[in-house]
Each structure stands twice: as C-alpha cells, then as structure tokens.
Amino acid sequence: MNRIVLCGVSLLMLQACSDAKKASEVTAAYVPSSAYSSMSCNNLRAEDLRLRRSVTEMSGVVDKEYSNDKNMEVVTWLLFWPAAFAMDGNDAEAAKLSQAKGEAEAIRAAMIAKNCRL
Description:
Layout (H helix, E strand, L loop, with lengths): L1 H16 L23 H39 L11 H23 L5
Helix pairs in contact: 2-3
C-alpha cells in the first residue's frame, strides 16, 4: 500500500514542476486584424499560407521541447531533485507559437472583412 501511495505522490510531483506546454495547449496571442487591412486578398492568402507553415513548424518545436523537458524532469528527479524546481520549460518557443497563431487569426479576420476567398 505504501508503494502505491509513494508512486502516486511521485507522479504528481513530476507533473507539477515543469511549466512546459504542448503545442495544443498554447493559445493565440491577440493581434489586431487592422494590421493587415491594407493588404490585398492575394497578399493576405500568401501571408496566411506562410504563417500556417510557420505554425506547423513551431508546433513541432514546442512539442519536442515539451518532450525533452519532461524527460529531463524525470532524470532530474531521479538524480538531484532540488534542481527540478529550477527547470524553465519551453516558454520562449510557446510565446513565438502564440504570436504566430494570433497573427494567423488576424489575417483570417482581415480576409473575412474584405470578403476574400479563404
């Protein structure tokens, strides 16, 4: 019984330390669509395509960093547990992804406002 409780507590501690996020957990930052209002429909479509590719690439990076961080967290807990509280996660990559997602949403909003073909 004690082993089960110890394993349960250990798993909770492992999940609680890292603030790393999966790409699916990163929300879009607010970007006003007015930044894209002067662009033509063709330019908006091209920018939308570029951003979609960028978001896909960034999502892969964020997910890889998330996986690396979680793996490092397990090793840290096993070898030197106080260091687990100093882990930084994947905040920088997640912030870039959030901004890109926000820009993509703003472009789509500008396309809808201009009645562009999506």
